[in-house]
Specification:
The protein has helices at about 20-100, 150-170, 175-190, 270, 285-290, 300-310; strands spanning about 105-110, 110-120, 125-135, 140-145, 195-205, 210-215, 220-225, 230-235, 255, 260-265, 320-329. It has two domains: about 25-100; about 105-329, PPM-type phosphatase domain (Phosphatase 2c, domain 1), CATH 3.60.40. A hairpin with a 5-residue loop joins strand 3 (about 125-135) and strand 4 (about 140-145). Helix 2 (about 150-170) crosses helix 3. Strands 1-2-11-10-7-8 form a six-stranded antiparallel β-sheet. The chain is an alpha+beta fold and about 325 residues long.
Length: about 325
């Protein structure tokens, strides 16, 4: 009888334990896939953030580059502007030198001493004068003031001075000189809106006579050495260049002069110097100055005229200033 505990010959071996099936692996794969997707999303977000940072950095760099280009352009423009300004300053300095050559500082002879002082408001200005000896026919003295300031006024003053010098030897007297200058100014400059005032005096020491005429100009002053009195010599004509003909025509003054008498011609930049309160220095101050300086030399009197204006006004000059002092020898 066979032992039941022993396997029978040819019988199948015992079955192995069952292995996990597809149903057990699916959750694991799902977890792995979800982790991969999360990682992909994280990487995408990081790439997007990095892209945004890169774009921001590029935009910032482009803005800096634009600022640098703009700054460079401003520097180049500033350099060009400084170069243009330096060239302009050089031209103005040369124009000032040329203008000053047209204005005599002092002229001295046995019968007449003339001192001139000139201070333009800017480098160049519209005040000018001439001192023109004519031998036995006396000496012409003129002072002119062009309306306005700066280069335009200086150019007109230069043209008028040149034309005046061409007339001084050909005119009989101051009134004729003014008429000739008025014709010239009206013909050439009426459309510019620039006009000028002028005072002309012809001093003839041989006969002891002073002839004068003014066109819209402040009155001249004559100090008489013998009496200590000061006389105002008025302008009676219209400004030059305003009208086709000078009015009134042919009028001029004639007075006697003696040794030691002094004549003061000037422009209104001196008498219109203003104090802090707004008051003008005025012509009367110059008449008093001539009496107060009677014992001083002509050059000192000319210096004192400008010093008196500087001491009276507030701040720098508001107009060109010119003073001419002539003393009969």
């Amino acid at each position: 009888m066979a032992d039941p505990s022993l396997p029978e010959t040819g019988a199948a071996p015992p079955a192995a334990p069952a292995s996990p099936g597809p149903v057990a692996i699916a959750p694991l794969l799902s977890s792995v896939l979800e982790a991969l997707r999360s990682l992909e999303r994280a990487l995408s977000a990081r790439e997007a953030a990095m892209g945004s940072e890169i774009r921001s950095a590029l935009e910032a760099a482009e803005a800096v580059a634009r600022d640098l280009r703009d700054a460079r352009a401003e520097v180049d423009e500033s350099r060009a502007a400084r170069a243009r300004q330096a060239e302009l300053d050089q031209d103005l300095a040369m124009a000032e030198k040329v203008t000053r050559t047209l204005i005599p500082r002092s002229v001295r002879s046995d019968d007449l001493t003339v001192e001139v002082r000139y201070v333009p408001m800017r480098g160049v200005g519209g005040d000018t004068c001439t001192v023109h000896p004519r031998g036995e026919r006396g000496t012409y003295l003129t002072v002119a003031d062009v309306t306005g300031h700066g280069i335009a006024a200086a150019l007109l003053a230069t043209r008028v001075t040149g034309h005046a010098r061409s007339l001084l030897d050909r005119t009989a007297g101051p009134a004729e000189l003014l008429a000739g200058l008025n014709d010239f100014c009206h013909a050439h400059f009426a459309e510019t809106g620039l006009y000028l005032t002028l005072f002309a005096a012809l001093v003839d020491t041989r006969v002891g006579e002073l002839r004068f005429a003014g066109a819209g100009h402040p009155p001249a002053f004559l100090f008489r050495r013998a009496t200590g009195e000061v006389e105002a010599l008025p302008s009676r004509h219209t400004m030059l260049g305003v009208l086709p003909e000078l009015t009134p025509e042919g009028e001029e003054g004639r007075i006697a002069v003696s040794r030691g008498d002094r004549l003061l011609l000037y422009t209104d930049g001196i008498t219109e110097s203003r104090s802090r309160s707004g008051a003008f220095l005025g012509p009367g101050a110059l008449g008093r100055l001539l009496r107060e300086t009677r014992d001083r030399k002509p050059e000192e009197v000319a210096d004192e005229v400008l010093a008196r204006a500087a001491g009276f006004r507030r701040g720098p000059p508001e107009d060109d200033m010119l003073a001419l002092v002539a003393e009969v020898g």
